[in-house]
Write a structure and sequence with these properties.
This protein has 213 residues and is α+β, with helices and mostly antiparallel strands. It is built from 2 helices and 9 strands, in the order αβββββββββα. The protein folds into 3 domains: 36 residues, no CATH class; 83 residues, no CATH class; 60 residues.
Length: 213
């Protein structure tokens, strides 16, 4: 039994059982077409973006929306509960139509997977709570954390040292005040140094920077 290159359709020319082969070909065509076309509703492709919002659906039913996003029914009902299993491939972020929050697209122009945050705002999230991330071939790690990453509150304010009174000759109290402010400045530098090194360590850990030449 021959097939018609390059597809899977059977050649029905001079077939002994023309009807059976034709039925098989229709099944193949249906399979091939529905891999690319939106799900049909009342004989026409759906215009819905996202899972169906009407009708009765069964468990594990697969639905393809108007943009090519694929959904799987996880609980039967009307319209049932749906989970997106394939993002819609688009060349530009959609900016019209009714799009559910959480809808996933793959912008093939940018090579970016995006999530609809509502109001035609598309966001790209990298990683999730408890997940691991690695860039440029480093071993993925959980989100780096540590007390050294805490915000630093500086003791010195702008102009504090310059505003000190210095007599000629300076008094012991004036020298002591200058010394105290210099020590406070040194404390600020040490705190900032700890923060910078903590941030550097975190960036190196996930691979954002190499940390060396």
């Amino acid at each position: 039994m021959g097939t018609i290159a390059p597809g899977r359709l059977h050649d029905v020319s001079n077939a002994a059982d023309f009807v059976a082969l034709t039925e098989t070909n229709f099944e193949i065509l249906t399979s091939e077409v529905f891999k690319h076309e939106p799900a049909y509703v009342a004989g026409v492709p759906t215009t819905t973006i996202g899972p169906p919002t009407t009708g009765s659906h069964v468990l594990n039913e697969v639905w393809k929306d108007a943009l090519g996003g694929a959904f799987k029914c996880t609980a039967a009902g009307g319209p049932g509960t749906w989970k997106q299993i394939l993002p819609a491939g688009v060349t530009a972020d959609p900016s019209s139509g009714t799009i559910p929050t959480g809808y996933l697209i793959l912008n093939v122009t940018q090579g970016t997977l995006k999530r609809h945050a509502g109001g035609y705002s598309w966001e790209t999230a990298i990683g999730a709570t408890g997940g691991k991330i690695g860039f440029y071939g480093v071993t993925p790690v959980v989100q780096p954390a540590g007390t050294d990453q805490a915000a630093v509150t500086l003791g010195n304010t702008d102009g504090e040292i310059g505003g000190l009174t210095i007599s000629d000759p300076p008094t012991q109290a004036e020298v002591q005040a200058l010394r105290d402010k210099c020590e406070e400045l040194a404390d600020d530098v040490r705190a900032l140094s700890a923060l910078v090194h903590a941030l550097r360590g975190a960036l190196v850990a996930v691979g954002v920077v190499k940390g060396s030449a």
